[in-house]
Known about the structure:
alpha/beta; disordered N terminus
Amino acid sequence: MATVEPLPSQAAPGAALHGADLLAWRSCLLALGGRPDAFDWLLDLGGGLRWRDLQALRLDPERTVLLERPLAELEALWQRHRRDAEPLQYLVGLCPWRDLELQVAPGVLIPRQETELLVDLAVALMPSDGFGEASALHWADLGTGSGCLAVALARAFPGRRGWAVDASDEALRQARLNLAAAAVLPAVTLRQGDWWQPLRPCWGKLVLVVSNPPYIPSATVQQLEPVVRRHEPLAALDGGVDGLDSIRRIAAEASQALAPGGLLLLEHHHDQSAAVGQLLRAAGLTDLQVHRDLEGVPRFASARRPPLAEESR
Ligand SMILES: C[S@@+](CC[C@H](N)C(=O)[O-])C[C@H]1O[C@@H](n2cnc3c(N)ncnc32)[C@H](O)[C@@H]1O
């Protein structure tokens, strides 16, 4: 891939840069290919040049800007993204998600926009007295990855105890960093292990459990874009032949692990709504609801363990 001559004024981060030079450098690199929105994302998260500042620069190229990284370094990241399809989020180590700026690294799934809705659903479906008076009732995030959902739930339910579970060392390391950065770590306990298993001591006390498990059918994983298939962890994506291996496992133990009346909220693939509903019903859960994403596609399911009075009928 051809390179663009680095500009002498950007020998060091924080060096002042003439706006017209920056715009010319951007145009030269984009002329070699690549998506302008991705490039501007890199300038924003990697260089600290917000989108609105870039627009202001277009209107007035005589302005001077300060970037957080030298142009040569940004250019090298861009070339890696273009050459090896490395996700920009891994290259800059950051991913904006809801109102958070999460740290991400290879080995942990990059949080997706649709997953943001799980937090809104959890808040909407959780009754205001759902945790009761006692602090004995908890929430949990199964398959926490970067900890995105755990951070958001800890902030949505301050003072409530939560659990973040993952099988992967790297995910737990990253989740700990993000929970600590959001100053919610004291309320959340991280546990390594297989879905509900590490939470056995608090089975029956979990009033809210969210999970975005791996749900992509194995054959579909092979067809994903290289930026995902080659770099994101397979264990976070691959849900087995029909994509439902993890959801089957989570559903199977839900009615023992949830508190009576407790809510399970899952994300799933775009074509799994009926199958997930069947699995949740077969596991003895009730009050099944289907939830759609912003495009109207059913992507989430919620269901409850029946309250004790109903279970004993
Ligand atoms: C789709 S990712 C979701 C990550 C994060 N919650 C999010 O929404 O971005 C699924 C996560 O489940 C974890 N996982 C896979 N198998 C697991 C298992 N048997 N028990 C616990 N976690 C598991 C993966 O390591 C991965 O972090």
